[in-house]
Amino acid sequence: MATNHATALGLWERHRDALSQAQAACRTRGYFSLFHETPDRHPGGTDAQAAGLAAFRAQLGTRFELDQPGARDRLGGEVSPYTGEPLGIDYPRANPDVLFDAARAAMRGWAEASPSARLGVCMEIVDRLYAQVFVAQHAVMHTAGQSALMSYAGSGTNALDRGVEALAYAHAAMADVPREATWERRFGSANLVLKKRWRLVPRGVAVCFACATFPTWNAYPAMLASLATGNAVIVKPHPTGILPMALAVRTCREVLAAAGYSPDLATLCCDTVDAPVGKLLVEHPKAAIVDFTGSARFGAWVEENAPPRLCYTETSGVNTVVVESVDSLDPVVKSLATTMSLFSAQMCTSPQNVYVPADGVRCADGTRVSPRDFGAAIAAAMDGIANDPRRAGPILATVQSPTTLAMLDGLSKDGAARGRVLRESRPYAHPDFPKARTRTPLLVAVDAGAQDLYGEERFGPAGFVITTRDRDAALAEAARDALRGGGITAFVYSTDADYLARAEEAYSAAGAQLTCNLTGPMPLNFAAAYSDYHVTGLNPAGNATLTDLAFVASRFRITQVRAPA
Amino acid sequence: MATNHATALGLWERHRDALSQAQAACRTRGYFSLFHETPDRHPGGTDAQAAGLAAFRAQLGTRFELDQPGARDRLGGEVSPYTGEPLGIDYPRANPDVLFDAARAAMRGWAEASPSARLGVCMEIVDRLYAQVFVAQHAVMHTAGQSALMSYAGSGTNALDRGVEALAYAHAAMADVPREATWERRFGSANLVLKKRWRLVPRGVAVCFACATFPTWNAYPAMLASLATGNAVIVKPHPTGILPMALAVRTCREVLAAAGYSPDLATLCCDTVDAPVGKLLVEHPKAAIVDFTGSARFGAWVEENAPPRLCYTETSGVNTVVVESVDSLDPVVKSLATTMSLFSAQMCTSPQNVYVPADGVRCADGTRVSPRDFGAAIAAAMDGIANDPRRAGPILATVQSPTTLAMLDGLSKDGAARGRVLRESRPYAHPDFPKARTRTPLLVAVDAGAQDLYGEERFGPAGFVITTRDRDAALAEAARDALRGGGITAFVYSTDADYLARAEEAYSAAGAQLTCNLTGPMPLNFAAAYSDYHVTGLNPAGNATLTDLAFVASRFRITQVRAPA
Q1: Chain B residue whose CA is closest to A29
Q2: What is the overall mean pLDDT for chain A?
Q3: In angstroms, rounded to a whole number, what is the distance separating the alpha carbons of residues A421 and A419?
Q4: Distance, in angstroms, between A419 CA and closest chain B CA?
Q5: Is the pLDDT of residue A1 over 70?
Q6: CA–CA separation, A513 and A532 (whole Å)
Q7: Spatial CB neighbours of A219, under 8 Å, sequence gap ≥ 6
Q8: Over 70: is that where the pLDDT of A297 sits?
Q9: What percent of chain B has a predicted confidence (pLDDT) above 90?
Q10: Quick check: A560 pLDDT over 80?
Q11: Residue A73 pairs with which residues in a beta bridge?
């Protein structure tokens, strides 16, 4: 497909200021967003909300139109965690070989486009995804099971911001390579002048795995980073959550085609739980880049088998909390209970293991709250959320996978045998969706000997209150969990500056991003695009960071031609 | 070892302007050097030259003093390609486990140092290596076998420039991460202000393999990139060329210790051909980064086995030339013959396969030079160098490894059987070193059917003149060699702008850096630090580029702490 890139360069002109602001934000890491973070302020107003809902409803029970090559047959099978009903949508099941060949063919014209042209198209994709965010919102709700607000903000605007952030880094990395130069040097008595030109050459076809519970948040940055640097991307959604990524791929294809490029730069490769294609995609001879978000087990396989392909992963999160001393206990308990309840702890940043020293949490008045009382307080605060119909739904939302229920049952038994169950996980009645798959948090009290129970990620609403010998042991064991099990976030509460400094050292060494003494309305695990680096790559939680230069700088290579001037 | 970093920050003040100039040069990619590229202009004057020679001579036949931990016993065995005599130097054979443990312990204080402090120390290392360049010059001559001038410029100043270039990129990548920020956002009716701080965390212990023929050129950038980003480095020299790297490691250790850091941030791990330790180092559980320069065969093993460690390689170079049309044949022939003779073609950038269309090279006057006549002209020009005692030594230098002689003998027989030997490889009499291991280039004429002979790197003075069906086949086959065999450089001669444009496309796709229509005093394969990107990573010649952001951006990670302001 031939193009003069004029449309793309027009898009660049339209979006360059926004990208430039995003780049500045990445350098200063203060607050920034290109979007309104609450639905009511979306520029489309209530009409856009209504249209999004209508489009989602119209899609239910019908064929998802995606005009891409290589369709073998159709597949589907998504079930809403809110209604328990199948979405009834079917998608093309693609022949991966055809997708790879189409992607390689599509890359020719795309690789020739300037970075500006590609960034213009990618920013337009972001713009369009924001315009259509309400369709995606319902898609995320009814596949991942997130609350309405999280589906809008976390999976919508914040995910798009992370995508723009990746574009800002791609811009910086590509702009670091000049297009041409004159090089002049004396050799003996002669003066040599060479003209040199460089081009950025994409790696090849990227495969982007999206996870079941938070598909867009990692996938948008990966897709956009690959596209901006000239690669094509094949998106492999989780079989239980295809729709959010199918919508994104369709939008990519529309924008690419409208700008004069092959839509096959972005394709969807769906599979089913029974006939997975993930390994085949990772090991495909034409795969050049793999971005993976998903389980620790498959993530480890990807990290082992993807090289020499580029490989960026985010897998599990064994996230820890140490409560050493507090000015006031209530806000800490409230924040922990809320964050551990948020989306039923199905976020890679959800805290799981709460460490308390055996001699208790020191309070400002000199008293100490015993581990038993502390655990009871957390459990009570969780009860407060679970039992309040106005709060339970928005905070807990639903449980994405039925397998989580079995995990909770098993852990409840193990917890009772090895420690004490502080609160049982139970369904709660969602006010809007009576058939929703819901569970309140299971909270188990154990001592540090039960590491086999809490040393790995228990994905879902399961938390531990772990009593350790003393505060030093609490810190050491929490950091060890992060280092061994893969910690993304970490939380410490202490009024002792020296202890906080040691916590900072310990978690930095363990590669978990630390939040100190945070209480109040922000979810403890909120990760802000342009500001919070997500995943360090220093422990098994993943090998890549959203977003640093390393996330983008290898996605293209540099070729050169030089000749006498 | 505790330090207040004052010495290092003083070094930073001393060198920051130089590094800043280097960074500007990386962005503009014009000519730049911090050093004088001919020995006579070295600031140490003739005294430094004499002192260097004296130091080298004093080292011969004696113990190399390197005060590092873990010495098991001593080893040695280097033999000068110039004199045929053993150097008689012995080095510590280290216990790798002890080196890794010492390196990890040494990293504590180094990781705490600011990027500025580390960059100051690294620039001081460069400064000291330049001050002592004449010792290293003789060390390179009498191990790698390079000429005196190449040992000074290519292995000295140009290698140091590539090292500074790597530091410039390390500086840029680290400076991209702010040290702290204030982040402010409304949540509901509350305003939240978070203070955030970031630290750069090194990956761990790097292993840097240096090759036999050009040890410093790739090793300096790798060592300095790892050190600057907070890692420790264990240098694994080729067993036949230990001295250049032993000198470099000793200088690193001296500068590090003088600045208050542990010298164990840089150690030497020597081995012998009979008892190699390379695989053990690559697979060591405490190895985090591997930089490899060396053979294609071991390089492929490293690329396969190093992950999940970071892995940067440069292996073989099947470098190609296409001669399609010329304004004047003589300068082209002269440049090719010289560059194919330079250091007996023991450079990863040396051209090997010269493609000529069957209907000959088109000249400006409309005549055509047949492949036979063209091959004869190259052979004659090679004779001109080989037979001129003033030129042969400085250009051809010596053959580093005796195994190269066997390769030449075998290829001569195969060439005679499969094509024609245009000129035989023979020893020449080096005017200064009568016992030098020397060989003039073997030049073989074949057609494109003999790809099994020329499709892989023939390391040493062996070249092919390959006749192809026509000029399009010449380009296609040359680019295919680069893509399959791993091409670093490529050269095209054509007066047809359209043909040059197609060559640029073909070689860009094949991942070889192209030089067009270059003649004159500069060796065709000269790669200038700060300007020429070396290796693309797009073909089997290696997976990393000297130097781009990707070469440094992953060598450190980012950890974060945030707390309410």
Answers
A1: B181
A2: 97
A3: 7
A4: 32
A5: no
A6: 9
A7: A208, A209, A210, A235, A245, A248, A291, A293
A8: yes
A9: 97
A10: yes
A11: A93
